[in-house]
Write a structure and sequence with these properties.
By secondary structure, the chain is an alpha+beta fold. The protein has helices at 16-49, 51-60, 65-77, 116-122, 151-163, 196-240, 245-260; strands spanning 83-89, 95-103, 106-108, 112-115, 136-138, 168-176, 179-188.
Length: 280
């Protein structure tokens, strides 16, 4: 395992009793090293054999939107799709933004926004997924018995398949606190029969994605709160040093405009006599 080396400048510094005492920490250190190596080997084995472990590891390291999208695409890449895409939806679900796209091994972040009608017409996307609570996996878009959607949406998929390389399709909704935030689409050019492991993995991917994006929302909210508190303290300190009424009103208006990102602020100063005996 290794050597525990203790040295002294004194002659015969260690006697037999000292060596016996040192044997205990040496043995404890050996056990600790064995445990560390065992954990490392188990982690390496999980990394190599378990897609669920790799999925968890990817999301644990994602702290920005693009890192989350990259983690999603990294998991999807193991299925060897023809392409994959991630969309985020507006709150009223009338518009969607293509935020990430995977082609081959390359991930890009186009940030293209269009109406839902545009995406339904141009992308491997159907309205049914907006109401779905679980991944929608379609092994063969040409076989109506394998597509759990109505006839109109199935016909739409067949038309998309006729126009481009689309044979199998996975549509994974991403929810945050019950609200549909986005969608992962995975497109296969050839027939891809989804295994039970893949079905479970897509469910885990849906849950991990939602949790990661919710975490980012909470972080952004916390950062905005801290920034606003810092701005409020700064504005308060600035106003405390102003004793001219006109300058005070102007500075307060400017501070409010910056704080709430308003287009403008109107401050009306009433004559002191109209305020009554109690003052301001």
């Amino acid at each position: 395992m290794g050597v525990l080396d203790l040295q002294s400048l004194e002659d015969e510094a260690f006697d037999v009793d000292d060596l016996r005492v040192l044997e205990l920490p040496a043995r404890q250190l050996a056990v600790a090293l064995m445990n560390v190596r065992r954990v490392d080997k188990e982690a390496a084995l999980l990394e190599a054999t378990s897609p669920f472990y790799r999925l968890a590891q990817r999301f644990a390291k994602a702290w920005t939107d693009q890192e989350v999208y990259t983690a999603i695409m990294g998991a999807v890449q193991e299925f060897s799709p023809q392409r994959a895409f991630i969309m985020t939806f507006s709150e009223d679900a009338t518009r969607a933004t293509l935020v990430a796209e995977l082609r081959g091994e390359q991930v890009r972040f186009p940030e293209l926004q269009h109406s839902m009608a545009h995406w339904f017409a141009e992308e491997a996307l159907i309205p049914a997924v907006l109401k779905a609570q679980q991944p929608l996996l379609i092994s063969d878009v040409a076989d109506p018995s394998l597509v759990s959607v109505d006839s109109a949406e199935h016909e739409s998929l067949k038309q998309l398949a006729a126009r481009g390389p689309l044979r199998s399709l996975a549509l994974v909704p991403i929810h945050v606190e019950g609200r549909l935030l986005g969608l992962l689409g995975v497109v296969f050019q050839t027939l891809h029969v989804f295994s039970s492991i893949e079905e479970n993995l897509f469910v885990s991917l849906m849950e991990f994605s939602g949790a990661a994006l919710q975490r980012l929302q909470l972080l952004r909210t916390a950062r905005r709160r801290v920034e606003m508190e810092q701005q409020l303290r700064g504005f308060s300190d600035q106003l405390a040093d102003i004793f001219d009424l006109q300058l005070l009103a102007s500075s307060a208006a400017s501070a409010l405009q910056t704080l709430v990102d308003a287009d403008g602020v109107l401050v009306s100063l009433a004559p002191l006599a109209t305020l009554g005996e109690e003052g301001v």
